[in-house]
Structure formats: C-alpha cells, structure tokens
Amino acid sequence: MDNFYVDPIALARKEGIIVIPSSHLDVNGSIEKNSETNEIVIEYNNNLHPNRQRFTIAHELGHYYAGHLNDSANKLFRDPVKNFTLDNYDPLEAEANKIAAELLMPEDKIEFLIQKLQYSTIDSLAEALRVSPAAMTYRLNNLGYIS
User: Strands 40-45, 29-33: parallel, antiparallel or unpaired by DSSP?
Assistant: First the structure.
C-alpha cells in the first residue's frame, strides 16, 4: 500500500519549504513567507491524527501552489479547524482544500484502485491513500464516482 499514498512533507521539501511539527500549535497548521529571507515555513499540529496532519500539510501547500503567499510580504495563513469544514466558505481556503484533495487523492490513483485493484469501499480507498473516509467521500463526489 505504501506506493499509493502521497507524502506531502516530501512535496513541500522538494519546493524548498521547511516543514515543522509542533505539539503546542493552537491551530491545525500555518504557512508563512518571511519577506526578509523569502523562506516559507509550514507548521502543523502533530497532536492530530496522522491523516489530519497530512491533509493539513497538503492544505498549506495548497496556499503555496495557488500563489496565496505571493500577494504580500510576510503573508501568514493560520488554519483553525473551521477552515477545513464545508460550512465556512472562504475562497482562499476552499481553493487550498481543493488542491490538498487533488494532491493526496489524485484522480489517476483513485481510478487505478477502483478499476484495476477492485477497491470497492470508501474505507478501503481512504486507507490506501491515507486520508479520512470523509475526505475520500468528498473527493469521490467531486470526481463523480458517487453523489
């Protein structure tokens, strides 16, 4: 199973982003660009479930890939739990969530698991890609596999 899941920390490091676990963080995660050094740092709450940690890191990468950090110097996104829920709509957060879902649950991997390996449950797909069943349900719905 290890070859199916995406490692968001490895993706961040390929971009030159520093990733720091924190047991004292009061939010799920944050990403910040330092205007003086141009260093980008993702910090995530390592007290959360490993799948939540992975999605949080991918979400922060979503801010990076979407160009949200390029809008101003010292840009900081602090992401409390509410930023990951459907009832809190903020276009920047929604875009970061969409990118996170695409990073962690690529359509081609989902299709391979379903078509070639005959995965037939949300739980088995979620386990293979190391995401929550809720995240997998949302992604499958967006891809048109379920409604």
Answer: antiparallel
H or E element at residue 14: helix 8-14
Let me know: does 22 contact 39? Beta carbons within 8 Å.
no
Cα dihedral 82, 23, 42, 55 sign:
negative
d(CA 124, CA 132): 10
- pLDDT (0 to 100) of residue 59: 95
- The DSSP bridge pattern shows strands 40-45 and 76-79 to be unpaired
Answer for the pair 129, 105: CB distance below 8 angstroms, yes or no: yes
The per-residue pLDDT for 147 is 84
Assess contact for 51 and 101: CB atoms under 8 A: no
Task: Locate 142 and state its tokens.
Answer: 């967006």
Q: What is the pLDDT of residue 36?
A: 83
Comparison of pLDDT for 83 and 51, the residue scoring more: 51
Q: Can you tell me whether residue 143 is helix, strand or coil?
A: helix
Domains and CATH numbers, the chain: 8-105 (1.10.10)
For residue 54, the model assigns a pLDDT of 97
